[in-house]
Amino acid sequence: MAAAKTAAEPVAGPSVNALKGSVEKTVAAMAKINAHSKKNLDAVVASVTAAAKGAETVGAATAAYSKKSFEDHVAAAKTLAGAKSVQEVIELQTGFAKSAFETYVAEMKKMGELVSASMKDTVNPLSARFTTVVEQVKAAGAA
Prior knowledge:
Elements: H1 2-81, H2 86-142
Helix pairs in contact: 1-2
């Protein structure tokens, strides 16, 4: 038996070493893939968190504007009810319409900025991961 083992070692040794090297490379590649996947998952979580925060911010701003707008309409109706002439009603209604329109335009600008900032915050983590992957692919292609 010892003779058979001694005879097999020169043949099996390189095969065992090659298999061992292959397994080590596979394990290293899997570790690298797992690390890459974790970073991707972290980017997705950051993106979803930013999107939820942005939606919450936009929702709160919308609710605040709706409440303020309703209060303004009630106040305007009370003011119009106290008008003493048709001319006064026209003047009050014109002033209210102008104010309501200006407030609406300002609010829509604010909403646009909030949505834009939210989208930027949502896309940034994913964009950063994409950029990293593109750089890694370029580096691998150059090597």
